[in-house]
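Appendix B, Record 12. Input sequence as logged:
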Amino acid sequence: MSLTNKVRKIVATELSKIQGYTISSNVSTTDQPNHVTYYLNEIGIYMNRTDYSLTISIFGNSIEDIEEKSDLIKKLFDFNQINSDDVGTTFYFENRNNIDDVKERLYGRLLRFQVVAYERSIK
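Logged structural output:
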């Protein structure tokens, strides 16, 4: 499995902790409430690490609910080292924005993180 897919698996596992929301990767779901979509893009490959940009979109029926979920996602990832047996990752929060171009009575937030990932050797 590639490093990118291993990092995607870590992200999906963390996002699955959000109760009552459907989680999707690399799809456009701006018209569905209670939905979280994430995009993981490789932005740099170095000798011992790979850097990614993680964009998470959250859609819900109330501003209060998506703000609560945004806070939860920020707590799950920001400055956290989340490791698996063969991958080490560190997440850095970059910014949080409103998503304005969604349907009436549907609200959205966009969170961005930088991710630094390392292959860990298994002995």
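The mean pLDDT is 87.
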